[in-house]
Amino acid sequence: MAILLPDLPYAYDALEPYIDAETMTLHHDKHHATYVANANAALEKHPEIGENLEVLLADVEQIPADIRQSLINNGGGHLNHALFWELLSPEKTKVTAEVAAAINEAFGSFDAFTAAATTRFGSGWAWLVVDKEGKLEVISTANQDTPISQGLKPILALDVWEHAYYLNYRNVRPNYIKAFFEVINWNTVARLYAEALTK
Ligand code: MN
C-alpha 27: how far from its chain's center? Predict the structure, then answer.
């Protein structure tokens, strides 16, 4: 067994005009595929630790030192992107009442998420996560660091690496963030939120 690159759950051009087909093709077939290949190369050096990236990245100190940073980068890169594809949809889904109420109670609006995505310096991600007490938090992480390593359960993710938007939006990250809100798969958010509260 090895980590496998999942197919996109829609066509490469399905999210146009918000996210263009060329970006989706490169992002999935090249960037995500490279994270998968490099994660597998790291895991092959230590077959004794298994391949469950969620478990391994939940406690990075347990990862053998010679592959630790590679798994943080590439294992995290795989998990983050596999989740990101599921959080996008061309189907114009609506935020569910439960998620809307939780966001309103925690933050009043999505401004905190937008701010996290806008202000993350360099490459990284913005996240809506559920903490150990079941509370919503907005965070951002650098590079491919996953919130799982902080004991947090991600329910919404936005990739703000330039590779995610530069072809279409050039340096104007705020326009990409605005477009992201047009293609969020709120059904996935609702499912992840429910799972985070029950586990
Ligand atoms: Mn990416």
Answer: 13
Structure token pair of residue 52:
């469950």
> In the beta sheet, which residues pair with residue 142?
124
pLDDT tens, position by position, 64-110: 999 999 999 999 999 999 999 999 999 999 999 999 999 999 999 99
Does the reported pTM lie above 0.85?
Answer: yes
CA distance 24 to 12: 6
User: What are the residues facing 88 on neighbouring strands?
Assistant: 184
Chain centroid to Cα 116, Å, comes to 14
How far away, in angstroms, is 48 Cα from ligand 1 center?
A: 29
Ion ligand 1, residue ranges at CB < 5 A: 159, 161, 164
Ligand 1 centroid–CA 144 distance in Å is 8
Q: Which residue has the tokens 């104007």?
A: 172
